[in-house]
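Section 4.2 – Deliverable D4.2 (structural model, holo form)

The reporting period included a commitment to supply a predicted holo structure for the target in complex with iron/sulfur cluster. Inputs used:
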Amino acid sequence: MFAGGDEYGIDLSVDGAAVERLLSVHPSDVAVADRLTFARNVFIPLTTACRYTCTYCTYYDVPGEASLLSPEEVREQCRVGADAGCTEALFTFGDEPDDRYTALHETLAEWGFDSIHEYLYRACEIALEEGLLPHSNPGDLTEAGFADLREVNASMGVMLETTADVDAHAGGRRKTPGQRLNTIRAAGRQGVPFTTGILVGIGEDWRDRAESLLAIRDLHERHGHVQEVIVQNVVPNERSDFPKPDLDTMRRVVAMARAALPEEVSVQVPPNLSPAADLVDCGIDDLGGVSPVTDDYINPAYEWPDHRELEAVADAGGVPLRERLPTYARYLPDELRPAGVESAPEPAGRDEWVPAAVRERIAADDVHGRRLRAVARGDGPLAVRGD
Ligand code: SF4
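Output (structure tokens):
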């Protein structure tokens, strides 16, 4: 059982033989993908408040210093992103700000919102109005939270990071693997196309990495909702001195991810943090969200590659580069799915993976709808100004 699992009724158990098999995987055991995808996004750090203080994290700000973007700032960021050809509004959070963040809660109340999640709903509506598809990463959520927010999101995500109970999550308020697994399960039960991943180098060992990947696989096999798994290496920063894992470590763990996960689940590395060109032959097929207009606010010292650098990564693997929407093609409705892509099985208790507001945004007869449908076709990077 994983730490915190009892509290959330997590009934996952990882098979020891499967762990051993995964531990024996090497890069030469996995097939090279036939394409490399990415999504063009605008990164919107809605708030830097977070109830936790993970030791490797530079994203959160303490009470009194945390930022909160106004509705006008959200709209302006979305306009800039849509103008630059982005398809995705990536809303990032810390975890739900607790009651130490009095100023933030007072501001939200002045604006007419009872909670940060209620405000996130409005921010997603703004993104849709401005022609972008919201992908929210709001930390841990309950099923009720997903039931609300799924109505305005194309897809959502949270990093599992690890099933190990590591000191990097230490502190008075400590997030647990049980809590994260509960969030991933809640997303599945609510039929939300979902992104998760593991963080490599925060004190976990090889067995923990294997168990984390198998836990994600188990949840995907139950609910069919995991669209991609990020294999992200930790990087040194002003708050931590965790060393960046070496290339051999990353090659092995990426290959383990490819071997552990079903074929339909993408394996992604972030190209501003990882040596992506040296990992293409280990089974990656996606480079995640890359922004032409905003920083990676979670790792601000690490710049996004531009379009030509992404092409160079694809060339290193001898595969084509393709742009995608934040929602993977198999979750899209029939009329938007490219030929040859099979539909994901219907989500439990829902008619569609993609909610009506998002389907209408994509189908709209305007410049944004045309851009989104062009990317949904999946036949190449969209040519936009500045490329
Ligand atoms: S990693 Fe996430 S949960 Fe941890 S402190 Fe940073 S924002 Fe909060």
